Amino acid sequence: MDMQTLTEFFSPENIYNWMEKYRSFGPLPGILLPMAEAFFPFLPLFLFVAWNANVYGLFVGFLWSWMGAVSGALLVFFTIRSLQHIRIFRWLQKQPKTQHFLQWIEEHGFGPLFLLLCFPFTPSSIINIVAALSKVSIYQFILAVMLGKMVMIFTISFIGHDIRSLVKQPVELIMMTIFILFLWYIGKKIEQKYAKRLTKKNKNNVE
């Protein structure tokens, strides 16, 4: 596929036609695609959320994406919690890294869950699973997911709510890319911060 074909394929007219076809299915795909990402973390949640904001509008698209992402996270959480007695999950709980994360979540509850879920590139599927294996209360998890996903999904929706404009304005696309990389960097720093705290605390306990 040469550059001209690629440019034509992603032309504003084609993008508009895809949006119209997507919108014709109603809110169902807008909810189901973010929900599916909770079960299949390799799916591009960022693209689903940005696409929803373009197809349905900023606020309605945000609502469908938020409903889907929260529903998916809760389904994973309740499924794992009800099946945590299965051998593979008992084995997972015994792993040192999992134990460290479990300990941190159980001690601090809402705070670290909320912060980690605010950023689009933290491994939310892993967070959902580990939270389910921990003793964190259902209330704390639901609150953290609802608020954390709200921040994360609105940020993505706001950044990417006008794809057609981004195609026409490469400067805006570059700025959006820089901001996305910034969010990724902050998310990774938060993960590293918690990992260092856990390592330091475990060393102190051993001493």
Describe the structure.
This protein is mostly helical and about 210 residues long. Helices cover about 85% and strands about 0% of the residues. It has 12 helices and no strands. Helix 3 packs antiparallel against helix 4 and helix 5 packs antiparallel against helix 10. It is globular, with a radius of gyration of 19 Å. The protein starts with a helix and ends with a helix.
Tally the beta strands.
0
What share of residues are in beta strands?
A: under 5%
Mean pLDDT: 76
How would you sum up the global shape?
globular
User: What is the helix fraction of residues, given as a range?
Assistant: over 70%
Please count the helical segments: 12
Main sheet summary: none
Q: Roughly how many Å is the radius of gyration?
A: 19 Å
Category by helix and strand content: mainly alpha
Give the low-pLDDT segments: none
> SSE order, as H and E?
HHHHHHHHHHHH
Distance between the termini: 61 Å
Properties at a glance:
mainly alpha; globular
Topology of this protein?
Blueprint: H1 3-9, H2 12-23, H3 28-39, H4 45-56, H5 58-82, H6 87-94, H7 96-108, H8 110-117, H9 124-133, H10 138-159, H11 163-168, H12 170-206
Helix pairs in contact: 2-4, 3-4, 3-5, 4-5, 4-10, 5-9, 5-10, 7-12, 8-10
TL;DR of this structure?
83% of the residues lie in helices and 0% in strands. The chain has helices at 3-9, 12-23, 28-39, 45-56, 58-82, 87-94, 96-108, 110-117, 124-133, 138-159, 163-168, 170-206.
